């Protein structure tokens, strides 16, 4: 293990780091990610109408259900109509999943690609 030089003394790095440093690091990164906006690219699939504006910056703490309701209003769906949202054309995320979490796991090229349709398309 490397020693960190502190003034005139050599102190082991193991002794200088607080025991809860890992917890502090995780907490700080979580706080930083909560403030971020996620660049979402919304693509129509199947029989869904195409949105004129496809790229949206959305608050990262918003759940997927927020995106679903937003799309339904934008494309003027009836309240009784279903809307399916897929991440990268592969799976339906849980409605309570946050956009930050999806972006960190499945984001590519600085954006989160979500496909929407009125009938089941994939999965």
Q: Could you give a quick summary of the protein structure above?
A:
By secondary structure, the protein is α+β, with helices and mostly antiparallel strands. The chain has helices at residues 13-16, 21-34, 64-74, 99-106; strands at 3-6, 9-12, 37-44, 55-59, 84-87, 112-117. It has a four-stranded mixed sheet. Strands 1-2 form a two-stranded antiparallel ribbon.
Give me the secondary-structure topology.
Layout: E1 3-6, E2 9-12, H1 13-16, H2 21-34, E3 37-44, E4 55-59, H3 64-74, E5 84-87, H4 99-106, E6 112-117
Parallel strand pairs: 3-6
Antiparallel strand pairs: 1-2, 3-4, 5-6
Characterise the protein shown here.
The chain has 123 residues and is an alpha+beta fold. Helix content is 30%, strand content 25%. It has helices spanning 13-16, 21-34, 64-74, 99-106, and strands at 3-6, 9-12, 37-44, 55-59, 84-87, 112-117. The model is unreliable at 1-18 and 21-29 (pLDDT under 50).
């Amino acid at each position: 293990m490397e020693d960190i030089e502190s003034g005139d003394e050599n102190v082991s790095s193991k002794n200088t780091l607080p025991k809860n440093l890992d917890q502090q690091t995780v907490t700080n990164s979580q706080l930083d990610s909560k403030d971020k906006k996620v660049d979402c690219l919304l693509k129509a699939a199947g029989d869904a109408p195409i949105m004129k504006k496809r790229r949206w910056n959305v608050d990262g703490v918003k759940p997927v259900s927020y995106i679903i309701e937003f799309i339904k209003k934008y494309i003027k769906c009836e309240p009784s109509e279903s809307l399916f949202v897929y991440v990268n054309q592969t799976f339906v995320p849980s409605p309570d999943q946050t956009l930050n979490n999806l972006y960190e796991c499945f984001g590519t090229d600085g954006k989160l690609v979500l496909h929407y349709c009125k009938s089941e398309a994939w999965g």
